[in-house]
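Ticket #4471: structure output looks truncated?

Reporter: J.K.
Steps to reproduce: submitted the chain below (137 residues) through the standard prediction queue, then opened the result file.
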Amino acid sequence: MLTGSSLIIAHNRPLTRPWPNPWSHPLPTFTYSRDTQIITVKLYIDPIPSATWPRSDSEWKNKEFAIAARCRKGSRIPRFDDIKTWAPDHSKFSKRWTSRAGHCDEPGAQNNLGIEERASVSGRGEEERIQWVLESA
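Returned output as attached by the reporter:
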């Protein structure tokens, strides 16, 4: 699941209406290129839950995103209250949401890992933030 620019490991949730929504939706697709060493992300819904969700398609759809280290924007893991509008039986899910809810990382922070629009990354130092060398364990 993507929340703002933060990545959260998630699974498909039970279908809730209207569908898709910030709680229940198709998960993004992650693709790694050995040639460029970049992990790209294909989004299928507006990734930012908000009171005005969904935003205009031009703000996110058909753009290429990449996983980036030290994101230029700060990131925050949403609290359950941010997405409860779309969750079924609020009391059941609020207890299992995430212990990291509300956690924030400042822009450029070492631990700030998320996604950025690939077209906005330019220059050698910038390109290094989205290149990843995957090693077998």
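Triage note (M.O.): checked the attachment and the full token line is present. Residues 2-128 form one domain.
Status: closed, working as intended.
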